[in-house]
Amino acid sequence: MLGMEAKKPYLIAIIIQLIYAGMFVVSKAAFDHGINTFVFIFYRMAAASLLLLPVAIILQRKNVRSMSLVLLLKLFFYALIGNTFSLNLYNVSMKWTSATVASASSNSMPVITFCLALLLRMEAVKLRSRSGVAKLAGVALCLAGVFVLAFYAGPALSPVNRHRAFAVAQASNNNHHPSSRMTWVKGTFFMVLANVTWALWIVLQSALLKEYPNKMLVTVTQCVFSTMQSFVVAVVAERDFSKWKLRFDISLLAIIYTGFVVTGVSYYLQAWCMEMKGPVFLAMSNPLCFIFTIFCSSFFLGEIVHLGSILGGALLVAGLYSVLWGKSKETMESEGTEEQKDAAKASSMLEQA
Known about the structure:
The chain has helices spanning 2-32, 37-60, 69-96, 99-105, 109-119, 130-151, 178-211, 215-237, 250-277, 279-284, 286-300, 307-352; strands at 156-157, 305-306. The protein is mainly alpha-helical and 353 residues long. The chain has one domain (7-60, 69-154, 177-351). The chain has a two-stranded antiparallel sheet. The N and C termini lie far apart (50 Å).
């Protein structure tokens, strides 16, 4: 029984990465089938709000009164950055690139978060230490990975399955045409920008949770605010309401999946996993999503994966692990220094006695 308990976090981490791989594939399939990306985000946030709002009302109704106007304004702003702007930009960039690139770029998140924390002086780099060199090397590898994804296609790898479950136009995979190539480059850098705004949201969110540690109300309030914001964006982007109509196709499946499974199930599993093993453990499992997405996008979408996408993804993964190694090494060094200080204090107290 103990052995099974010890394996649980690893199993949960694999399930989380499978859920995210599924999100990239079904979202890309929905966009290739013609749903407006801005309308999609509105429906996704509305589905998430419908799932979480009743739960919050039942469990947290007594705590709602403790939310001040200043806190609500902060949550509105954070929802705008982390959900509305970031997700809309991310989905536009995925429409212009591929599910594989979207998954590969997610490995840059811890590196971008580290860079933002460095700019905000929440992190420090000791250039003469191995941990500091590892962190900087991670940033360099991450940048190299982004440029490879954007500018190098390389030879195409054959799809795993030519009889696709979600039929999409082959034109979406043709990135060798000059105009398509420019769209691919713009999409890659838009994806990086989306990750920057998401990383900024993570940094701001961690500070907010220290001030107001109710995760449920913070999440639900941002979902509701983002639903309203996304509706305004979608109305401006798509004024033909006949195109808002949902049908029983891949678009509806993608909305239900991203709204309920990703927002509901995976967020809960992530919180459980981080509580058990910490955030670094979950970040270490990110590359699994990249591997799953390569296979699933090729199998279900018939997506033509290029060597450049795999090489770029590999550089991003290397950058991720380099930064995480530097962080863990730094933590071990600081803990060792604290123990030495405590030992020195105890020694001096004994001498004084």
